[in-house]
Amino acid sequence: MVYVSERKSARGVYVYERKNTRGEVTSHQVKWRLAGEWQTEKFEGTDAQGAQLFADAVRENGGRWPAGWVRGEGFISVPPEMRFAAYALRRLELRTGIEERYRAAAIKELRRYILPTFGECDIRSSEHFNSDTIAAWVLKMQRTKVRRGREMRPMSPKTVRNLHGLLASILGDAVRAEPPLRERNPCALTRLPRADDHGIEEQDEDMTFCTPQEVEAIIGRLTRPADRHLAVVAYGTGLRWGEISALAVRHVLDLDGAKPRVQVARAWKRHPDATYYLGAPKSKASRRFVRISPSVVRAFRDAGVSPDRPASDLIFTNDHGERLPHSSFYERWRKAVKEAQEAGELASHKAPTPHDLRHSHAAALISAGHGLPYVQRRLGHESIDTTNRVYGHLLPEADDDAMATVESVLAGRRPVLRAVG
């Protein structure tokens, strides 16, 4: 079948005739964009009038699916409060224990990626929500292109998994409702894409690992002393940007002691209106104490940390003593990266961001033989699975150690154990 005829029935809403090889009209398709994504509905046979009426309804509804219309089924009779869109939005609005920024982001993604398919469905229906309909939606998400930098690329497996998790959490609420609205959650049956389903690890394109020499070359080209101090702290601790920029003088402990350390007790957060506030770190595991080396101690001293300075003062700030925006530091960082590349001290294919100092910190620890559990605690990962997924591939020596252990056992010798922490 091919498209052979097109009519614009309304602003941005199109009706296509589809014909077979004999030129006979076999169906009509209505097509329009919603939140940047193409939406389609098919009308079998010669029902041009039905397609036209539906297109008009889309236009009258502001380019959204008409209320009560389920894709592929038409209008259905569902109590308004049982429609998935109404139920999901209500559950997200009432959800406790989450930050407002997360709530706003979840509602935004719900509207853009989930409601166009399931918005008018009955939350109680096993026909609307089952393993097949969920799988079809996941496939659609995998084929959806999103902007990454200057390019449009297929949605990453991680994003698909996050969206599926959002849908699963809402259907889970319906299962746990009193009385229950559903017997089970069909999302539990979905086989989700893995990070390497496209042949490469998702992190490969998102992370850059720099050697200590490359880090030194970049830091040496930062012209502002405060920027150099910050970069040394970032590489020496592995803290996230929001954690570093939220450090106050009181969070740097025992500078003159045998075991100086940094307390990670807060981080900069962003309200839905894009304003910032100091809140809890990313997770419970992110609340931590991080030991620091002599070079990091010197960086803190040079940055003005001393007993005479007010304990509540931010250590790294803008020129007015306020929160240091990532964007302003990033511009100066990018200039230093370019100069290091031009000097031949940084590989031309590497374009590290300030966050890559955290990744490079982890790489340095792992290359020195420190185990993933130690790296997990130091970086503040909630789960060892996260640490393994992101950094596990940096352990090539693990195979050598494993083979030596196996061979020792097979040869009747006692395996030699080494300290890794």
Automatic annotation (TrEMBL):
SUPFAM superfamilies: DNA breaking-rejoining enzymes. InterPro entries: DNA_brk_join_enz, Integrase-like_cat_sf, Integrase_catalytic, Integrase_recombinase_N, Tyrosine_recombinase_XerCD. Belongs to the 'phage' integrase family. This is Tyrosine-type recombinase/integrase. GO terms for molecular function: DNA binding. Transmembrane segments: none annotated. Pfam families: Phage_integrase (PF00589).
